[in-house]
Specification:
2 helices, globular
Amino acid sequence: MKITGFNPMILTKEADAEANIQLFEELGFERRHNKINEMEVAFDEVRMKDENGFHVDIVSGKRNMLERDLTIIRINVDDFDEAAERLLSRGYRESKIIGKLHTETSKYAFYVAPSGLVINLVQHIK
């Protein structure tokens, strides 16, 4: 398994997304990609990048039940199943709130460590 991307992701309420995006724009990030998913779990994702190549994703969900923002580590991999098994073997569990989702272009799921660390595991399908 090879890691192909690694960056922070902020999960926020839909009403707070723009304020988070504006903060990162003030810090030198630019909007690069906006993904809107109306499938099983409706969400908007804005991918941002700065001049040094660093990324941050701002994700807001229409059904987001969080009381406050949640910072997540996004890890893109070339083999989703192998990476998921590594996390599960170390005590991570698949998030019951979001679960495993697949689109035409990606596989992804959120995994939670016993300590509370959340990892968004992603594989882009080419």
